[in-house]
Design the sequence.
């Protein structure tokens, strides 16, 4: 997900540049001004409250802004990202935006400031007032708005400078040159993003073999919790000894151990394009853990893919696998196979549903040859890379 805040005083050209960014990066546009004018036109309660404030050149209260923006964001969960025009305007609103982004399990990629002097802003807005018909495009109101901007909005810059996502653009330059400056900033930030993929599917759907092949082809780090646990056991590490003891006592490995191993993997993986997770998260709790781990490392989930295979085909595949060297502990009898499938349905399907509501899940038909399924998944991953760039 690509999230951008476009910053600048009234008349800086945020609206013009926003049109360009929305088309190029397929973003959902959030302009507090437009949203408020819509509320006013519809004569809603929020619109009536905002009307008198806007007419006098003041800033609308955070309570009104938050209600409108939060509704807009939650109504568009499948968006490729959001472009914020005119928000945040205050230091407090910067924290509000942080909270809204966290709710979406994402963050603001960059805040781009269009730098324009007060006199240029006044001149541009007075010219706009000749054709716009807006009663707030007069010099008195304009200068009030600029005073509000300088007193309340400029401190927001330091907030984003501290986060390392603040960038300046010469807003007095031509529209084309400003476009180029903004594109360079965004593309540079996108080049730092990792393509993190979660690969879901019932046991027997082919996640493991597909995940390994895809990781190799796209330069991704393959993360399979089962294999990581086995590696610790073989290396006879302290964690491995503990895992062995748990296995011998018929106990499940707690999330505490799994988290340590995944975090170590995230820290030690260098010069990769992202991660592909197989077998994690399996529960809702683990989904929040993964979201938190990626967030801690400045990343997030970019693509979620589920391989769909009919139940009878799954049972057939697992039964056939039980007769090979790749047999898993739950393959040894039909009863165990059914139990494992039921466990996936009760614990992991809710995780997929959660992610589908937040980000959207790409469903892949798992029937066919290995290469046929691989091609289908590759197509989704290619689209993932395109969205990042």
Sequence:
């Amino acid at each position: 997900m690509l999230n951008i805040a476009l910053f600048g005083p009234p008349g800086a050209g945020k609206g013009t540049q926003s049109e360009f960014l929305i088309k190029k990066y397929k973003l959902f546009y959030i302009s507090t001004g437009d949203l408020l004018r819509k509320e006013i036109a519809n004569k809603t309660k929020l619109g009536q409250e905002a009307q008198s404030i806007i007419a006098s050149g003041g800033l609308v209260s955070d309570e009104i802004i938050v209600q409108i923006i939060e509704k807009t964001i939650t109504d568009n969960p499948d968006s490729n990202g959001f472009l914020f025009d005119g928000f945040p305007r205050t230091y407090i609103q910067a924290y509000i935006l942080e909270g809204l982004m966290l709710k979406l399990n994402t963050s603001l990629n960059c805040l781009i400031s269009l730098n324009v002097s007060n006199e240029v802003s006044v001149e541009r807005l007075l010219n706009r007032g000749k054709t716009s018909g807006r009663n707030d495009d007069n010099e008195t109101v304009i200068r009030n708005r600029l005073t509000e901007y300088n007193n309340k909005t400029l401190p927001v810059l330091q907030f984003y400078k501290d986060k390392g996502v603040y960038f300046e653009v010469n807003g007095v330059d031509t529209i084309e040159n400003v476009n180029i400056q903004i594109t360079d900033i965004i593309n540079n930030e996108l080049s730092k993003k990792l393509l993190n993929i979660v690969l879901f599917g019932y046991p027997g759907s082919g996640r493991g073999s597909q995940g390994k092949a895809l990781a190799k082809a796209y330069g991704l780090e393959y993360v399979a919790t089962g294999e990581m646990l086995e590696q610790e056991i073989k290396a006879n590490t302290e964690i491995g000894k503990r895992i062995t003891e748990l296995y011998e006592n018929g106990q499940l490995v707690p999330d505490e151990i799994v988290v340590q191993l995944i975090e170590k993997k995230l820290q030690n993986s260098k010069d990769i394009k992202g991660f592909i997770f197989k077998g994690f998260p399996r529960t809702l709790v683990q989904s929040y853990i993964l979201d938190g781990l990626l967030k801690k490392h400045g990343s997030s989930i970019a693509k979620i893919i589920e391989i769909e295979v009919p139940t009878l085909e799954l049972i057939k595949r697992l039964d056939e696998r039980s007769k090979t060297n790749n047999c898993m502990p739950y393959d040894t009898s039909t009863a165990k196979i059914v139990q494992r499938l039921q466990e996936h349905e009760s614990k992991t399907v809710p995780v997929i549903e959660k992610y589908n509501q937040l980000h959207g899940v790409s469903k892949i038909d798992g029937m066919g040859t290995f290469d046929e399924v691989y091609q289908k998944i590759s197509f989704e991953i290619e689209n993932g890379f395109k969205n990042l760039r």
